[in-house]
Amino acid sequence: MHIVFAASECTPWAKTGGLADVVGALPAELKKLGHRVTTLVPYYRQVAQQMPNLPVKLASVTIPFRDYNRFVRILDAGEQHGAQMYFVDCPELFDRESFYATPSGDYPDNAERFGLFSRAVIEASKVLGVPDVFHVHDWQAAMVSVYMRSTYYFDPVLRKVPSVLTIHNAGYQGWFPPKTTEELLLPWDMFRFDKLEQNDTFNFLKGGCVYADALTTVSPTYAEEIKTPEFGSGLENVFAQRADDLLGILNGVDYTEWNPETDANIAAHYTPKDLKGKKECRRDVLHAFGFDHVSDETPVIGMVTRLATQKGLDLLAQIIDELVKQDMVLMVLGSGEEYYERLFTELSEKYPDKVRVQIGYDNVMAHKIEAGADMFLMPSRYEPCGLNQIYSLKYGTVPIVRATGGLEDTVDEQAGGKGTGFKFSGYSPWAFYDAILRALRVFQNKEEWTEIMQRGMMQDYGWHTSAKQYVQLYERVITQRAWS
Ligand code: ADP
Ligand code: GLC
Fold first, then answer.
1. What is the pLDDT of residues 88-128, one digit of tens each?
2. Are residues 243 and 337 in the same domain?
3. pTM
4. Best substitution site from 19, 361, 387, 404 to test ligand 1's pocket, by max atoms within 8 Å of Cβ?
5. C-beta separation of 149 from 102 below 8 A
6. Same domain for 183 and 210
7. Does residue 312 sit in the same domain as residue 379?
8. What mean pLDDT do residues 254-260 have?
9. What angle do CA 388, 390, 395 make, to 5 degrees?
10. What is the DSSP letter of 231?
11. Whose C-alpha lies nearest to ligand 1, atom 17?
12. Which domain holds residue 183?
């Protein structure tokens, strides 16, 4: 089977979060199962810096808009992580400081940028190899599913090709003004509540959810949650209507990148049976954060996160004055919204002996924290899957999480010689604080703590099971489409 992946991120060249990790890792597993994957991603400035002068595969692909045409190139990056990798080059739209936004807000032409990207994926596939199925990710690629059932509906080579849309985060939908309809050359009768319209905006994700042959989310619990108003971000009815075509497939993780036995970014290697190296990693990361004075008995709490409302950072802000009274230190690596960057910087200035913060994106430091911390915080308001808690399990860094989405599905509350972490349910600062206090208490019992760490390290969240579920789904939609 030939699968075309379309996504706005792919590790290591273009990454803001877990979407990049998934797009970078799933193709390798599909390849092991005997399938062929072609992945297309925008050629952002950051990608061009890492991979300049790529060979040109297609010199000019025309992408029409209402008032003009744009012309993109398809660049060939060869085989990467098991997929044939192409980049969509359109410097006017992608040679920018960031992928999606500046600190002052989203790029105003994002509809054009990702509309163009989606259409380029389809056009390029017609020339480079029509797939058996398109697998598109998040709102930035969702228009592939829309175009396939509208603009390209009568295309003889494409009309039997289904699309699967994976929703990595229903909170980001791609909302644009109504005039986007005609700018993207779509008929006005698609700007309706049962199609692309939502609260008088043109909604990319909604369009994808209406037109894709099947929908997936990245954990079973999140697939249920998004059918409710609390988690559906306004699209709960669309998700509920498509419940029969909506499947929660838990993300895997790439243990070639995230494994304390082999990780090249950390100070020492270790295994569940021999944890000595973790002590060295702990010293290393404490030193990196300027915490050299911290004793072996003091628990080290880590956090690596996009600084966004989704991540439950307000809960942490509400308990921090109490938390710092405990024997512990907290290190945070994060980048994102200015408000949270300022908040965390202020907290580290207020409690320099207890709280240290590194603002920015730093992959090596992310690995060092995973390896060197004793505990890892994820108090997310919602979490479609979450990869950091799964990395934490592997690194023996006990996760403290809110029981939502993929956090609920991957962390088991420890008790009676079972379980891998600490969980709390309600979105309440004190429930969160209580979970941390429980962890700090158990940490005092070295034997019990080590057993929790070891149970986490033995968990296997590799891609094998999930990749098979995707293959079954691809087969289902291909058959359905063949008969339609
Ligand atoms: P999300 O995709 O919602 O951000 P995930 O837990 O699925 O959450 O994935 C986050 C990924 O991004 C992980 O690989 C994590 O290490 C990485 N990450 C997040 N913030 C940073 C940062 N500031 N620096 C380096 N890596 C980061
Ligand atoms: C999103 C979600 C995160 C998930 C990731 C990869 O960014 O916020 O929970 O793990 O996508 O699917």
1. 999 999 999 999 998 778 999 999 999 999 999 999 999 99
2. no
3. 0.97
4. 387
5. no
6. yes
7. yes
8. 97
9. 90
10. H
11. 17
12. 2-252+464-482
Q: Is 386 in the pocket of ligand 2 (CB under 6 A)?
A: yes
Residues 66 and 175 in one domain: yes
Whether residue 468 is found in the same domain as residue 439: no
Please indicate, yes or no, whether residues 241 and 321 belong to a single structural domain of this protein.
no
Residue 266 lies in a domain: no
- What mean pLDDT value characterizes the chain? 97
Give the domain CATH number at 168.
3.40.50.2000
Q: At what angle do helices 446-458 and 429-443 cross, to 10 degrees?
A: 110
Q: What is the CA radius of gyration of the chain?
A: 23
Q: Give pLDDT, residue 323.
A: 98
Q: Kindly report the CA angle at 415 between 409 and 418, in degrees rounded to 5?
A: 65
Half-sphere exposure (CA, 13 Å, Cβ side) for 432?
A: 24
Q: Which two tokens stand for residue 210?
A: 């209406």
Among 137, 358, 363, the mutation site with the greatest number of ligand 1 atoms within 8 A of its Cβ is: 363
Mode of pairing for the β-strands spanning 36-42 and 2-6: parallel
Residue with the two structure tokens 């273009």: 14
Nearest CA to ligand 1 atom 14: 18
Short-list 155, 134, 132, CA closest to 144: 134
Q: With a 6 A CB cut-off, is 304 part of the ligand 1 pocket?
A: yes
- Number of domains, the chain: 2
Same domain, yes or no: 69 and 163: yes
